[in-house]
Structures are given as C-alpha cells and as structure tokens.
Design brief:
Strand content: under 5%
Distance between the termini: 33 Å
CATH architecture: Orthogonal Bundle
Number of strands: 0
CATH superfamily: ABC transporter involved in vitamin B12 uptake, BtuC
C-alpha cells in the first residue's frame, strides 16, 4: 500500500469516527428519526445545534493542538516540548482569568486576544530561560517548562481563590466538548487557518529547527521564523483554552508517533500529525461518552490517561534506543 493510499484510508477512518460521533449521546438521534420526523424534529435540532458543532470542534482542536506541538518541538529542537510543557497553556489560562476578573463583560474574541498575548509572553519567557541554560539535555528542557508552568499556574490559583473563581479556572484546565453548541465554537476556525499557514511555512520551520547559524547561512531570517511559530502556537493555544479547555499530552505524543514512521521533515509529517491529532481526540471523546453512559467523562481526563501511557512508552523507548 502506498503512502497516499494509507493516508486516504486514515482519512476515511477518521471521518467514519466523526460520523459515528453524531449519533452517540443521551438524546436519541437516528437516521430513521431524522428522515421520518422532518427538518423541525427534535432529533434534527440536536444534530444541527449540538452534535455537528461538537464534532467539528473536536476535529479542529485535535488538528490544531497536534500541529502546535509539532511546531514547538521543531523550534526548540526537543521532542518532549509542547504548549502544556512550556508554560504556554498556563499563561493562556492566566490571561483569561485576568480578563474575567478585570473586565468580565469583554466579548469572547477579546478574551482570546488577551489570552494569546499572555501565551506569547509565557512562551517567550520559557525560551529566554532556555537561552540562559548551558546544560540542555533532552529532559532538562521540558522540566524547565513544567516548573515555569507550575509557577504560572500557582499565580492563577492564588487570584482564582481570592476572587472565588477556582471552579471556573478548573473548567479551562480540563478539555470538555459537552458544552459546545452552535454559536459557541466558531472561533476554532481560526485554528484551521493557522494550521494552513503552518503548512505553508513548514519548510522554514524545518530549517529553523536545525539552528540559528544554519538557518542564517541559508538566507532565512531566523528570528522571523521563530516569531511566526510562536504566534501560531500562542493563538492556537489561547483559542482552544477559551473555547473547550486544555487537552493534555496531545501536542507531545502525536508528533513523536508520526516522526517514528515519517521522519523529521515537517512538510511531509504535518498532514499525518493533523490527521492523527483529530483522530485521537475524536476517539477519546467517543470513549468518554460510552464508558459511563449516560454520564460523560471529559475528553481532557481520557486524553490525560491515554497520553500519559503513550508518553511513558515514548520515553522508555527513547531511553532504550540510546543505550
């Protein structure tokens, strides 16, 4: 089977899961009800208002977060870096919290802009700290990000406690698609546009991942490429946190799995990363709906379990391959 045929098969499987997702839930939605009861039936309204927006949001979030993780791993030249291990997610949550406290009536797009600026600042601080560390091993880099994220998260917890917003903060920290409805997910289309931009700049990101000196010798503006990557990662993270919450480990494990089979060429690997990201989130969301049916486990919880297992496997396999 050729790579193209395999990719088309994977697309078909993912679309099949998406179609299956439309008919899973407490409210009964079936083909018989959709065609027999007419366009104004309750089943049709559930499908149009809840199920289709939810399925689209799952795919967009999975694709964007996986690609954002791939960009960060390219720019930092470390396989264990992603928005949730670099302080980016925590900074975005702090930005949303600041807006909620200071200007709670700000529109959703305004919250997204502020969260993006906080995420960009947190990621920039992470990179600035890395530049001051001389001994950079594979594990030291994500550990620095985790420590920074812990500090930022503690600051957010302090202010959330002071203003009685701990429960609100916890909803942003655990990805959940159960509240996605028509009119409340459309910001995620921004992430689709940014994913396309990332694909157009894939060759530049691949070159930038080889170091500043190598990039400059090839005639590329290293700092501009870095800035573009950081802006894409920050906006994607902010939009997803504002809309559905944090989906952990996704940007960490998906690019690593793809690189094992496709290699480190970003233009070749990005479509696979995007597809696997959407597939994995869709699979976790369906599992979360079925495990305790009719109750639902948030996708962030399911992905946390699945992602941690995959992360340990990748960590141990890398350690074994290095001796």
């Amino acid at each position: 089977m050729t790579d193209r045929s395999l990719f088309l098969l994977a697309v078909a499987v993912t679309l099949g899961l998406a179609l299956l997702s439309l008919f899973i839930g407490v409210s009964s939605v079936s083909l018989a009800a959709l065609f027999s009861e007419g366009p104004d039936s309750r089943a049709m309204q559930v499908l149009l208002i809840s199920r289709i927006p939810r399925t689209i949001a799952i795919l967009l979030s999975g694709v964007a977060m996986a690609v954002a993780g791939m960009i960060m791993q390219m720019l930092t030249r470390n396989r264990f870096v992603e928005p949730s291990t670099a302080g980016t997610v925590e900074s975005a949550s702090l930005g949303i919290l600041a807006v909620t406290i200071l200007t709670p009536s700000m529109p959703l797009i305004g919250k997204m802009v502020v969260a993006s600026l906080f995420a960009l600042g947190g990621t920039g601080l992470f990179l600035a700290i890395l530049n001051r560390i001389q001994w950079k091993t594979v594990l030291i880099v994500p550990l620095v990000g985790l420590v920074l994220g812990g500090v930022i998260s503690s600051i957010a917890d302090f202010f959330a406690y002071r203003y009685d917003l701990l429960q609100t903060l916890s909803t942003w920290r655990n990805g959940d698609f159960s509240g996605v409805l028509r009119g409340r997910y459309e910001l995620l289309w921004i992430t689709a546009a940014l994913t396309f931009v990332a694909y157009l700049a894939a060759d530049r990101f691949t070159v930038a991942g080889m170091g500043e000196a190598f990039t400059t010798n090839l005639g590329l503006a290293y700092k501009r490429v870095m800035t573009l990557g950081l802006v894409i990662v920050s906006i994607v993270t902010a939009v997803i946190v504002v809309t559905v919450g944090i989906v952990p480990f996704l940007g960490l494990v998906v690019p690593n799995i793809v690189s094992m089979f496709v290699g480190d060429n970003m233009r070749r690997g990005l479509p696979w990363v995007a597809l696997l990201g959407g597939f994995l989130v869709m699979l976790c969301d369906i599992a979360g709906r079925l495990v305790r049916f009719p109750y639902e486990i948030p996708v962030g919880t399911v992905m946390g379990v699945v992602g941690s297992v995959l992360f340990l496997y990748l960590l141990l396999s890398r350690r074994t391959s290095h001796g």
